[in-house]
Amino acid sequence: MINFKINYIKGMGKFNLVWSGQFISLMGTAMTKFALLIWAYQQTSKATTTAMFGFSALLPFVLLSPLAGMLVDRIDRKKVMVFADLGAGLGTIGIFILHSLNGLQIWHLYLAEALAGACEAFQVPAYSSAITLLIPKDQYSRAHGMISLAHSTSQIAAPILAGILMPVIGIQGVMTIDIVTFLFAVAALIIVKIPNPEFNRDQSKDDRCYGEDLWFGLKFLGKHKGLLWLMLIIQNMNFLSGLTYFGILPAMILARSANNQIILASVQAALGAGGIAGSIIVSIWGGPKRKVQMIMIAGACSFLLGDPLLAIGKTGSVWIVAAFLSSFFIPFISSFQNVLWQTKVEPGIQGRVFSIRGMFQQASLMVGFLLGGYLADHIFEPAMTTNSAIKSIFELLVGSGKGSGMALMFICTGILGAITCLSGYFVKEFRDLEETMPDH
User: Which of 194, 207, 259, 309 is the most exposed place for a label (fewest CB within 10 A)?
Assistant: First the structure.
């Protein structure tokens, strides 16, 4: 009966069903992550603690991505997504049990994040390549706009919902909701038929030659310099974002607001609101013909309008405006870069190519997380809380006291990020990617 019904769901209808399940699951996960992030920072009051959340998730993602891409191209992509969702759900169940027994420690959270990252290494290339097969090319931009919308909505709604629910049902209640939402994601995947393309080895006659597949993505990028430069520019943007935007923003807000959870939730909600606004525009508009140019402009605007304002702001209202402006441009970057990858890389090799792209881009984010926490706790924060030369120069701009060193880091990433984005204009292979490399 189920198979009979889903035969009538075509194209965007199938995608909408899968997207809905992933969106519901994403909401539950974001609620749990917010609740546990607050709990962890309250235990240590260190920026490194929050930065290690991201690092713990990204390390297994980076290490497993080449293997994941190879397997995604070889086996049923729907099964990969189902087992990835179930694996991440098991991590949440483990944290739930430990918290119930009053045995939860911070390293347990890092371990759960590592499990989630390992599962994501398989889920991301499977999800991305499945989109290519579910919908026509002219819907790619809208689909990725919807994916950005899901992430942004979770940013705005999850902190608010978690903040409201935690005093009533506690962290355990929030995690229970998260566990239930995983079931929605799995159910949506089970009832949708996702086609699998013919496996394309391209250069090997032996189907058992897994070693060559692990290097296939690197060889492909070596031949297509425009995509290689796209990966490198996004990689550098991720590194700078990992230093501050993703790594130490919660710690900076809590430090400069006397651990005010409401202000932090409001800032994260503003991040989501900006992302929602940008995602809606992308979903309706579909994007310009010259997507490469839009990626560069959107990236520069995000860094210049967001990071410095987050740095010089000292009140919740300023941080909220800065967060909105910073995240508004993110859907333009993520959606249009994904469209370029999906239109330029044929479906049969997308798993291997996308996993290499993800490995390098997420590796830079991982390094940013790790380095950002260290720089904040051991260099920038001490420099701005003691009578140093750095403090005398920048005190009028970012203030002094706890959190001012992290604010100075945002000034640095804002300037460097804009330079990174606009540098693409000087690279011909990247600038002319859409004209020189044909669609698959």
Answer: 207
